[in-house]
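step: validate -> pass
step: tokenize input -> pass
step: predict -> running
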Amino acid sequence: MSEKNVLAVFEEIGRAEASMPEARAVVPIRHGITFVALDPAGPIELMGWYSQGPIPLPAVGDVIGLHWDRVRVVAVHTQYGRDEGTGEPVVFTSVDVEALPTTAA
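step: predict -> pass
step: emit ->
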């Protein structure tokens, strides 16, 4: 990315931040998370929710359980922003996963 493009990105972030209403002094952060399977036919949202407060995030390579099935994390994408109406902080994370083979009992 050229220096000019980097500066344009920073200016856009500054404009977005300046346009948000002032948040209350102390507010819980809304954190959304979704888990996505990368299927050849297109991504499939497996599950997702919002929480008032932080949600532990898995790292790439972690093996986690989704509804008691094991999956491997292949990518984690996090966006930080503010609610346009209240100015309160919002964090949204999308976690891409792949299924792990099941083992016979």
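step: describe -> The chain is about 15% helix and 50% strand.
step: cleanup -> pass
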